[in-house]
Write a structure and sequence with these properties.
This protein is about 30% helix and about 20% strand. By secondary structure, the chain is an alpha+beta fold. It has a 5-stranded antiparallel sheet with strand order 11-10-9-8-12, with no helix packed on it. A 4-stranded antiparallel sheet has the order 3-2-1-4. Strands 5-6-7 form a 3-stranded antiparallel sheet, with no helix packed on it. The longest helix has 21 residues. It is elongated, with a radius of gyration of 41 Å.
């Protein structure tokens, strides 16, 4: 029997799991030398640790000694937050990575480290489907979309170029120091406000350092297909005019009700309430917006941020007491009862206030007559 090795590694897709917490695992179909096929599940962090260990095992092929000798493919590091879009975009990267890895010399493509990484584990056989609030969600790679996915990942990307307006000194190894006037390319924007930047080289062309517009791209990613269910005429320069029934692509959805759409080579804003997804019945949507106008643009609202910047007026304790209902009622009661009480007290100013009369003490026979039987027995025993 020959040596054990892997013939082919194919990425089937990824799976969204919720136990012990939400995470994503990638499904690989591994074909071994004995023509057996096994499905294994691996996280991207595990794949990246495997990649680092492979570079340590083969430092020459990893380019650690001489960068020109590197043949091991590159693999981007995991991000702090991995969402569904990130997991979906990595499919093309992983497909290319393992395809390049299997085409390397035998000492790398059949090394024990690679074989141990793709051996079937107990977790691969016991899928997390029992005792869960949510079942795993599986996303398979479309058969007709493998090439397009790889092209989207490896093709040119539109990068926005920015110029630093102040000096910044890095406080950790993961940050980049910038001086005023430095030009950088924004590769990724995170939700926390930090940016993944790429700095231009000092020896680069002068034109590349001066440009502040997005770089041209030979291929633009298509947006989400929509159809206009009501005509609209643009009122501002950055808006798009559409007739009913025209098909467009939605590039970006904003919260103020105005979406960024593309019609051919024209890109601009359009009211989202006048759009309907392609392939859906638009009759009901037309009835709902029959008498409704387009929402106001946030940029056209006068002093739109004033309601957030204005703080509530804080009343003092005296002002609050004066404006309270109970205080106002007391003032009305005092104002209404003041003249009558003063008129009633005028004749009695010279005489003292009469004291109530003290009732006479009851006799012993009356007390014995009205008291209880137990009191009568106690009085009789005392006598």
């Amino acid at each position: 029997m020959g040596d054990t090795f892997i013939r082919h590694i194919a990425l089937l897709g990824f799976e969204k799991r919720f136990v012990p917490s939400q995470h994503y695992v990638y499904m690989f179909l591994v074909k071994w030398q004995d023509l057996s096929e096994k499905v294994v599940y691996r996280r991207f962090t595990e794949i990246y640790e495997f990649h680092k260990m492979l570079k340590e095992t083969f430092p020459i092929e990893a380019g650690d000694i001489n960068p020109e000798n590197r043949i091991i493919p590159h693999l981007p590091a995991p991000r702090w937050f991995d969402g569904q879009r990130v997991a979906e975009s990595r499919q093309g990267t992983l497909t290319e990575y393992f395809a390049s890895l299997m085409s390397l010399p035998v000492k790398i493509s059949r090394c024990p480290h690679l074989l141990d990484f793709f051996k079937v584990r107990p977790d691969d056989l016991k899928l997390p489907t029992d005792n869960q609030v949510k079942k795993p969600e599986t996303y398979l790679v479309p058969k007709d979309g493998k090439n397009s996915t790889v092209t989207d990942i490896t093709g040119p990307i539109i990068l926005q170029t920015y110029r630093a307006i102040a000096d910044f000194e890095k406080s950790s190894s993961s940050q980049m120091a910038l001086a005023t006037g430095d030009v950088v390319d924004v590769v990724e924007k995170s939700e926390s406000g930090s940016l993944w930047l790429r700095k231009e080289r000092k020896g680069g062309p002068a034109g590349a350092a001066r440009t502040l517009t997005p770089r041209p791209c030979s291929r633009r990613r298509p947006g989400e297909p929509y159809v206009a269910i009501r005509a609209y005429t643009a009122e501002l320069e950055d808006e798009v005019s559409l007739q009913e029934g025209e098909a467009i692509d939605v590039i970006h959805k904003l919260l103020d009700g105005w979406w960024v759409v593309r019609k051919g080579d024209i890109t601009g804003y359009f009211p989202s309430m006048y759009l309907q997804k392609s392939g859906q019945d638009a009759a009901q949507a037309r009835r709902q917006i029959k008498s409704r106008g387009a929402p106001p643009r946030r940029s056209s609202i006068r002093n739109a941020h004033s309601i957030h910047q204005r703080s509530r007026k804080r009343l003092s304790q005296d002002t609050y007491r004066r404006n309270s209902v109970r205080f106002l009622q007391q003032r009305r009661r005092q104002a209404g009862a003041g003249p009558r009480s003063s008129a009633r007290e005028q004749p009695q100013t010279g005489s003292a206030k009469p004291q109530p009369a003290v009732p006479p003490r009851p006799s012993a026979d009356l007390i014995l007559h009205r008291c209880s039987e137990s009191t009568k027995r106690k009085l009789a025993s005392a006598v």
